[in-house]
Amino acid sequence: MSDDKQIDVGRALDQFFAIVRHEAMGNPRFAKELAEALGYEVVFRGPEALLAVDPVIVAMKGQKAFRETFLSFKAADLKKLVKSFGLGTDADLKAAKTAPLLVDLLWEGANAKMRDRGM
To answer: Which residues, 6+ apart, have CB-to-CB distance to 11 below 8 Å?
Structure first.
């Protein structure tokens, strides 16, 4: 290896962790996975959660954590989650017009998925 490509271990690690940190800050799902791999429970609320949250995984933490997480969302975002995770039908979405009703729909759908997966 040429001398211009050599750096000390501290600088190499600084550069590596700067790249990991940069990616984690721009990718909430990646950040969540990193933090959980280190043993930390990651809590997302509001708009940032939309990019990283999986309703089935949150449902595994219980109804209180589920409601705390999803009641921080706007109704339009909750509808997107119901559709993208296949947790309700179009008829269900028409009936659930408010955020609390949409959270209930998500909860029911996430629990149905858990039962289907034998969880």
So the answer is: none
Give CA–CA dist 2/70, Å, rounded: 54
**Spatial separation of the C-alpha atoms in residues 52 and 77, rounded to whole Å:** 13
Query: What are the tens digits of pLDDT across the range 48-102?
Result: 677 778 898 889 889 998 998 899 889 999 999 999 899 999 999 999 989 999 9
Compute the distance between CA of residue 79 and CA of residue 76 in angstroms, rounded to an integer.
5
What type of residue is 87? L
| Full-model pTM | 0.64
Contact 65, 58 (CB under 8 A): yes
